[in-house]
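hi support,

uploading two proteins for the ticket. first:
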Amino acid sequence: MILRLVFVDERSAGMLTGGTAMLEPSRTSCRSAVRVMFCLCLRLLIVVWRDGRRMRQVRSMPVGVASVRSESDLLVRYRGSDGGFVDTSLDRLSVDDVLAGLPVREFRSYRGRRHYSGWYWSATTGGLVVYESRLELARILLADKDSDVVAIAAQPFLVDGFDGERTRRHVPDVLLGHADRAVTVVDVKAASRLDDPKVSAQFAWMKRLCEQQGFRFEVWSGTDPVLLENVRFLAGFRRPALVAQELVPLVLEAAVSPCTIAELERQLAGPARWDRIRPVILHLLWRSRLTANLFRPLDGDTIVRTGVAA
């Protein structure tokens, strides 16, 4: 439609001049306009095709019922650290690459969204970890606090395979790497939904797949609220750069014998001010270098002592 209008306007302009001298320039300019418009349209088609191809890579997996022939054919897609997608089988999955990679799917914010999603800075990874709900964030907080966890990846991979007579596709919520090289696949789901037959069937399938690969599988629906609130509070002191590191040896030495947080602060009131000591105590509790009963509310009477975690 646009090309046709341009052509008609150019020819009309030549006819209105009433002379042959003006007709040739009009035809020349018309041909130039057509060539320009053709190049622009061709370029637009290339951009649309390229962007559409990228979106299909993000939203879909190039495998399906036709390519999956038995329950042993388990296909997996994940994103590497460079953002590129990698397709492989479950038995050939590189866990280290998945843990170092990016989320296989991206979340979007929109008005009316029921879940609160965002990014959490992890002291374990030294980078951002995505979460799609507050419940997922709670599980990531506990993993970040756990000294046995050395790697955390959210939305780590998409698995596609047969489960009896139907094909299932599922993205676990969290993948944890442990110090002993063990791997835990975590699905986070509200307790009110665990009795849903579709949910239980999905998790039973994932548990079976994880056991075949030697992975641990966990369905997480929450924990003790006091423990969670304590961990959430201690997470505010997880960044080493915000703590006076020169006071760490003094605190650890003073807490060899069990004592309360208030007593520890009074004991070290000489070498440093209490407002510099308290963040160090809370940071060491976060890192489990100091231990305490976190199933009771933290306060000045909480008993702490030097732990064994590095």
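and the second one:
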Amino acid sequence: MKKKFNEAEKENLKNSLKNEWNKKIGNLDNFNKVWKIIEDSARYVFNSSHAYAMAGDSLYAAYFKAHHPYDFYEVAINHYQDKGDKNKMNDLIEEARKFYGLKLGSWRFGVDNSRVTIDRAKKLIYPSLSSIKGIGDSVASELYKVAQGISSEASFVEVLSALKTETSVNRAVRSSLIGIDYFHRYGAPMELYRQAEVFDRLFSRATVKAADLAPYGLGLEDITPLCEKVTAKQAKGFNPVRLIEFLLHKTPKAKTTFLDRVKLQYDILGYVSLKNDAVNNGVFVVMSIVGNKRKRISLYSLKNGKEQQCNAWESSIQQLKEGDIIKVRSFKRDYKRVPKDIDGKKVYVKTDEKEYWLKGWSKCGQDTNTQIKK
């Protein structure tokens, strides 16, 4: 491609484009405006083969995103998975969710979650486990393989045993899997965290002392049927899986609230897609805070799943951070102001457009679950 045009060549190019514009559009109403943009941009852009190729790629991507979004996102997300770019994967998933109404399907133990697939009829993205930070490509394959060898009647403790002895899954990865409800069929997250804690404490033990059983309100005599030898001080010769199951059966289960799930989803995945009509009006998750003195805030309603954009001055939200759950008492709708240069000074001028400002709000603390109607 030619890199520079002299005045005569530029005029010829303009006339040629004008003729083609008139043929295609049927009038020249906006031609001069578009030509002015092209002419002005020539000061800082360059017509190299690289720029031409990149522009072509951008246009191809924009076309497929607009006309074939399901195919585009499925291919693009898997492409970045292959490259190991999890940030780009998550950005694309969030973009598809926000602008094309796609919802995120669930990860499930026993299902092959090694690749991203999209169900067009249900508008669901079935994600890859690799999209979660800290989980490598091999983990999904290991989990799928282990699941195929586990009985449908197996307990979660048996699953934990298989993960420890047959996979490279560490505690951090296991914690994330529990938090995203990957082991849904074995129970809710907080109960599975409880079981995992007991498992970690006792699975590798060859002996158990009375002090180990005290937190469960039990003594060595209570586990005698499970052991080959029990003395006044300790017990040994037991099947750790059966012992752990016995202890868990003797202690109360942990409850998982809706807001427990919200916090886990945000902490692990960086977004929230859950909603509950029983939540009181005005309860939001703070998804993002950007800007300097004037902050632009994105809030996610836990009642209806809709996002609310609003503004706030930095001084009024110093205690607010991303991931907080808040109760909003009021928004103020005011005319949007935009910066304008007047006599060399930057002045904010009112426009006809209105925007929301965050006014009355408070954090939902330890009593957060009271925000759900009984």
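thanks. also noticed: Residues 66 and 149 are 43 Å apart (CA to CA).
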